[in-house]
Every structure is written in structure tokens, then in C-alpha cells.
Amino acid sequence: MAAPKKGRRPAGGQSRPGRALAIILIAMVALTGGMFWSGHTTPRLGIDLAGGTSITLKAKADPGQESAVNETNMNTAVGIIERRVNGLGVSEAEVQTQGRENIIVNIPRGTNEKQAREQVGTTAQLYFRPVLAVTNGAPQAAPSATPSGSPSAKPSASATGATAGEKKSATPTATASTQGRALTEALKAPSPTPTTSASAKPTATGTPQATPKPDPATAALEQKFTALNCLDPKQRTAAGQGVKAEQPTVACGEDAPGVWSKYLLGPAEVGGRDVDDAKGVLDQQRGMWIVTMDFTDAGAKKFQAITSKLSAQTDPQNRFAIVLDGEVVSAPSVRQTLSASAEISGNFNQQSAQDLGNILSYGALPLTFETQSVDTVTAALGGDQLEAGLIAGAIGLALVIIYLVAYYRGLSLIAILSLGVSALLTYVIMALLGPAIGFALNLPAVCGAIVAIGITADSFIVYFERIRDELREGRTLRPAVERAWPRARRTILVSDFVSFLAAAVLFIVTVGKVQGFAFTLGLTTLLDIVVVFLFTKPVMTLLARTKFFGNGHPWSGLDPKRLGAKPPLRRTRRAHAPVDAKEA
User: Fold this and answer.
1) Are 91 and 48 in contact (CB under 8 A)?
2) Count of CB atoms within 10 A of residue 383's CB?
3) How many other CB atoms are found less than 10 A from the CB of residue 467?
4) How far is CA 8 from CA 5, 13, 65, 145, in A?
5) I want to staple 357 with a disulfide (CB 3.0 to 4.6 A). Which of 57, 209, 280, 385 is the partner?
6) Element (DSSP H or E) covering residue 223
7) What is the pTM of this model?
């Protein structure tokens, strides 16, 4: 007779419950310890439960470009705003379109809520423009520009990237007529050469020759630059609005708190789309916060070309202005050709540097937005709804427990313990997912957790009924527990797979708060499998070895008489006629 193989367990053989229980116990201790170690002992709450800010943005199109406000650009803007806000660690920021030209941004109350409010509507149009002229920010009686060779100190570009230092106010030193001549030539050519002659100069024959009149666009830009008052916030904001990248413009820049300069700038040579990555970092050597930028391949070539041109010019035409949303953030001078990367430095602290890096990393909005309304959402209504939902969940849980106790009696203890383990794991994981991925608990997510109670209880019922079926066939409890498990396991896996698939599809095809319901439903479905495999089945195996359950006590829920079990099948030996010694 061949001996059975050692690697195969016979049908009805006993499993090793201690190993599975040790695994889930270690996991529970580790997750709970991680929750307390992280300092986040409660799940983050969504805007409907915690309150927050609701911002309404309205898209504006530049004159003559009304068709730019379309579905494609609006959806692009929604994606960029959502990445910006969530990049700050704001949990469950909800961004969606409303109508044709409005975007609604819901920001839950949190530590970065203020930063998020400041960034949602920032267009973040970044351009690198050559500087044609610069002077102090007050309006001038006549056009003025800092002539070449001005002795005032200017920031310079480093060998590894363009470095914008503290912008210094340039003080004009030439006469009004000289400055006007320099400004006109700056608009005509990238390398202006100031002259000290008057507006009319004599020829060789002594006949005065009139200076050619500038074209209307140049004259209008000169007048705009002259009249611009950078000390007026409204004029600063409107200075560079509606100007295309290929057109010259004027802009303001803050040299120090309350000290402004105004710039005459040429067409943009490099744009924000040419920036591959940007981040705010602390320069340890200089002890100041800067924003580092890495260019794309195409952007590096453009940056190399413009710095090559500027390095051959004199001040201020050897400077390029880093213009963000029409305002000069920095204006360094260039002394050599650069291409790899750039730095923006100036009046930055940690927050402003990281904010600018965050904005530049996620790109510019395709449209300009104005804030229509900023409303503060209180958590009072959401708190009332949460209280009502928790009461409903408690009632449902109580009814499930009453049913389990009345129908399964002692087996209800296993079900209640399993529900407790599942609830503990769900709570701890939700608390950890808040700081990890920004998960926030909202009302639909609470509904998903309540629905999961039924899914988890259904798994217990399937297993218990399989065990009872085995007992009705006349088997004892310990073999019945093991023989029922393979059949119950298949049913539980198929049921949970369908639930998880539905949750995954719902999460993919929906937006906003409905995703919270789908995420919670999928999470609790996965935890149901973990609890049933690593807790419910091992505990059932251990309790089957006790006298209370193993002998079928009437309150165990496994009484063979109540279940109508068949009598156990026993083998009987056939009777043989006696034989005498000779035959033997």
C-alpha cells in the first residue's frame, strides 16, 4: 500500500489558524502604531463635513479671442487647477465646470487652504522677455530709459543658469530728449545705441533734417511706458494684460517691499511651456530661497539663443525679464550663453518660492479667470447629515447583530468580532490615507462604509451556511469546518470581485464626491477578503476544537438536532461463519 504524499493535506484536514491570526495581528498593530506615530489619529474630513471655501471663477477671453472660451480649454483649466491645489496637500479639492464659462472650486478647511485660494485663479503665464528699458516706477514727464553703461548694480546670470538677484531700481541719468531717443531706438532694434542729439539735427549743408516719426504702435507704447505708474496697484495689474507673446509690452517689478520699477520689454523669446520642471529650494551658499527651473529640449535651445544675443549687449539691453502674469518677477543680466537651467531669485521666502515652483510645474492656465465669489462653507449642515447617517448606520448594525444572535446564536460572536476587526482596519487605513494621498472622508464615503457592513456580514453568512450543510450531511464539526471552507471561499471571492469591479468602474467614470463612495466601497471590499481569510476562518477553526461548539451545544448555533442532521455513517463488518482449526 503506497504511503500518502507529505505535501498534500487530505480532505477535511485541519489548517493552521495560529499563523493567519499572527499575520493579521501584526498588521493591525503596525497600522495602528503608524497612525499614532504620524500624529493623524482621525480621518481627514471633506468640505461637506469640515467646512471650507467655495470659489467661483469666470473665464475671460482677450479681445478678439472670444472663441477661446470653449469646452477643451475649460477642461484643461480644471485639470491644472486641480493639480495645483492637490499639489499643496489640500485634501479632496473639488474642481468642476458649471455652465459654459464658470469653474467651481471647493477647498476643504486645512492648513494650506489660504495658499490654495491664492493659486486657483492664477493664470501663470510665464515669459522670458528681453529688457529694452527700465526706470523707476513713477510716471515720467517724458520717456525715460536707463542708458547703456549705467553704473547702477544689476543682478547677473550664473554659469549654471540664469540667476535673478534682488532687482535694483535704475535711476535715469540722461536728459529727457536723450531718453526719448533711446526709447524709440530700443523699440526699433534689439541693440539700441543712445544718442545725445536733439530731435532735429543739421546735415552737412546746414539744413535741419527732421527725425522720422515713429509708427503709431511705437508711439502708443512709448506713451504707455511714460504714463505707467507702478505705484498704483490697478495700473500694475492692467499693464501687461491682453498682450500677445510676440508683441513688446510694459510691465512693473518690485525691487523691494514698496519699491517698484517699470520695464519696457521686447517680444517673448521663451515661454512657460518650455519649462519642464520647477521647484522652490533653499540656496545654502547664499542663504536665500530661489526657484530652479529645468527646460525641455526645445526650451533649452531657445534659452541658449536668447542668452547668446543678450550677452553681447550692454546694460540694460543685456538683461531678460522673467514675467509672470504680466509682472516682472526678476530681471537678471546675462554675461555668457546659458542653456541647461535657470534660477529665479529675489524677494522670496519659503512659501512664495514653493508656490511659484508649484505653479510653474503644473503649467499655465489656457484662459484668464476672474473671481466671481468666495464663500465660506460651514460644517453645520454636513455635521447634521453626518449625525443622521451615523444614527442610520448604528441602527442597521444593531439590526444585523440582532439577526445574527437570533439565528446563529454562538456563531454570532465570530461575526461580531470580525465586524469589529474590519471596522478597526477601515478606520486606521482611512486615517493614514489622509496625509498619504489626500483622502478625505465625506458623506458619500460614509455611505460606502455603511453599505460595506452588509457585504462583510454576507461573507460570514455564506461560510456559516456551508458549515451547517456539512453538519446536516452527518459530519462532525471539525471536518465540516474544513470541508465547507473551499466552497464558501469561491462564493465569497466571486461576490467580492463583483462588488470591487462595480466600485472601480464607478470611481473611474464619476467625479467629485461620488468617487468618495466608490473608493470607500472598494477599500472595504478588499478588507472583507482580508478579514474573512485571516480572521474569520482561523477563529472558526479554533472554536471548533472547544466542547461548546464541537459537541453541538444548543446555543452554539451548530446543534445537529436543530439542523436536522443525518445520523453519522458508520462502517459495519460482515459476519463470517466459524471455521475449524483444520480449515484455518
Assistant:
1) no
2) 15
3) 24
4) 6, 10, 75, 91
5) 280
6) helix 216-227
7) 0.55
What percentage of the chain reaches a pLDDT higher than 90? 13
d(CA 348, CA 286): 13
534-544 pLDDT per residue, tens: 999 999 999 98
Which range has highest mean pLDDT (88-97, 177-186, 267-276, 397-406)?
397-406
- Of 376, 373, 299, 374, which Cα lies nearest the Cα of 338? 299
Average pLDDT of the chain is 75
| Residue located via cell numbers 554675461 | 335
Consecutive H or E run containing 373? strand 368-377
Give the three cell numbers for residue 35: 497612525
CA proximity to 379, closest of 429, 442, 322? 442
Q: What Å distances lie between residue 321 and 238, 252, 326, 334, 382, CA to CA?
A: 18, 10, 11, 11, 48
Q: Are 272 and 356 contacting, i.e. CB atoms less than 8 angstroms apart?
A: no
Closest CA to 248 of 233, 227, 269, 230: 269
Vertex 117 angle, CA 111 and 121, to 5°: 150
Per residue in 497-534, pLDDT (tens digit) is 999 999 999 888 876 678 888 999 999 999 999 999 99
Residue pair 274/305 in contact by the 8 Å Cβ criterion:
no
